[in-house]
Design brief:
paralog of FGE (formylglycine-generating enzyme), 2 domains
Length: 466
């Protein structure tokens, strides 16, 4: 959503208050969609050791909302201080959470509902006219100054809406992992408008990466800083199923020379032979499981559920490479006509159904060419939505990074075994997806809605010609 800086205008502050209420409500409606469709046994079950029981996510969403909005921002008494430790994601690995004395589904729903009612009271009384927070050190006890910084431009409310939508995407991934028939419904993706293929040249030069002005941007997106890149070429579209099938047919999973040493070791250990959820029938046709339903692999759909090692091997096979995170962002945001970086590839306006496949509007990526209105000024398509795109970059802080409002969102992950993903997926909501938004995961992860596109350096003859 677009957040207007409220300044000192009471009317604008009230409009922001209404935007916050709509954004929080949208997140909670999606949480309900993902949990109300299952019975108690399904909600408390662990459908994969990679994921929490859905009932844990449900109560965790409420607990984070209580910690930040009811206690820190509102200065109110705790609703359930006795459960803080149970729903601290850093205290308990996902695989261990089913053994905890968790709230049952009815208790979790009641708890989250009680917290939300208190949040409405906090929001009604919040002074949203303060300046937005930019940077701050490690998480500190609530103070008047801290509350002012959290409330400014609705930052804490936006942070919590993003947190809930990020967990909603995680819960959607849990639905993909669960056995049994689908319990989710969505209309089909739009029909492609025009074919999209080939490469796009991004000229050398400087652009502004990150942001210092988006009031709901998270700490790892800050601060804005200039980055100078040599010219490069990036694919106009993500790699499709048809293209990936060529890699499989050419022995891509049987050729160690295409893989890094670590990637090949993982391919062998995990017995990777195709993207996750793909199966081949007796006639040689490929099918994939989509939320409990088997569907034929669609040729022009971006490939999804591949890990970073698979993406890297495909890139080697194709004679290219994965883009760096900075290359991806320049291709997505830089407008050569104005020399500025946009919020989204198409401009600064919020995403809608014509520009990006977001928000679980559809339950799969759309075919390449379905969102021409969402293309960047350079002509790169479907950078936002559809699939998270692996890049070659590790998770590192930007120059001048400072943790705000707590170290555990980003800082504790810096330098770990993580690769960057950009752009969002069909399961990401617009509040947690923008041109500067940064996501990361281990290079072996495939249950996430991840795909990729390719890039390459300019050849000497292309540098001379351009």
């Amino acid at each position: 959503m677009t957040v207007h800086l409220p300044g000192t205008d009471n009317a604008e502050a009230e409009r922001l208050r209404e935007q916050i209420a709509r954004t929080l409500t949208r997140a909670r409606e999606r949480t309900a969609t993902l949990t109300d469709c299952l019975d108690e046994a399904e909600l408390v079950a662990q459908h994969s050791r990679l994921m929490s029981p859905l009932v844990w996510d449900l109560a965790h969403i409420g607990n984070q909302e209580e910690l930040w909005l009811v206690r820190d921002v509102g200065g109110r008494d705790p609703v359930r201080a006795d459960i803080d430790q149970l729903y601290d994601a850093f205290q308990h690995p996902r695989a261990d959470r089913p053994a905890l004395p968790l709230l049952d589904p009815a208790e979790a729903r009641a708890y989250a509902g009680t917290v939300r009612q208190k949040v409405w009271d906090v929001l009604a009384g919040a002074d949203l006219r303060a300046e937005p927070p930019l940077t701050e050190g490690a998480h500190a006890p609530a103070t008047d100054e801290r509350r002012t910084r959290l409330v400014g431009s609705g930052f804490a409310f936006g942070m919590i809406a993003q947190h809930e939508q990020q967990h909603d995407e995680t819960m959607l991934a849990t639905h993909q992992l669960r056995a049994g028939a689908s319990v989710l419904n969505a209309p089909p993706t739009p029909t492609p408008v025009a074919p999209v293929s080939g490469e796009i040249h991004i000229p050398a030069g400087e652009f502004v990466m990150g942001t210092s002005t988006d009031p709901w941007a998270l700490d790892n997106e800050r601060p804005a800083h200039p980055v100078r890149l040599p010219g490069f070429v990036i694919d106009a579209a993500p790699v499709t199923n048809a293209q990936y099938l060529e890699f499989i047919a050419d022995g891509g999973y049987r050729r160690p020379e295409l893989w890094s040493e670590r990637g090949w070791a993982h391919r062998v250990e995990a017995d990777l032979i195709a993207p996750q959820f793909w199966e081949q029938d007796g006639a040689g046709s490929w099918w994939r499981r989509v939320f409990g339903t088997m569907i034929r692999v669609r040729p022009q759909q971006p490939v999804v559920h591949v890990c970073w090692f698979e993406a890297q091997a495909y890139a080697t096979w194709a004679g290219k490479r994965l883009p760096t995170e900075a290359e991806w962002e320049k291709a997505a945001r830089f407008d050569p006509a104005t020399g500025r970086s946009r919020r989204f590839p198409w401009g600064d306006a919020d995403p809608d159904e014509t520009t990006a496949n977001l928000g679980q509007r559809h339950l799969e990526p759309a075919d390449v060419g379905a969102y021409p209105a969402g293309a960047s000024p350079a002509g790169v398509h479907q950078l936002i939505g559809d699939v998270w795109e692996w890049t070659s970059s590790d998770l590192q802080p930007y120059p001048g990074f400072e943790a705000f409002p707590y170290r555990e969102y980003s800082e504790v992950f810096f330098g770990g075994d993580y690769k960057m993903l950009r752009g969002g997926s069909f399961g990401a909501d617009q509040v947690a997806c923008r041109g500067t938004f940064r996501n990361w995961d281990h290079p072996i992860r495939r249950q996430i809605f991840s795909g990729f596109r390719l890039a390459r350096d300019l050849r000497p003859d292309e540098r001379d010609a351009r």
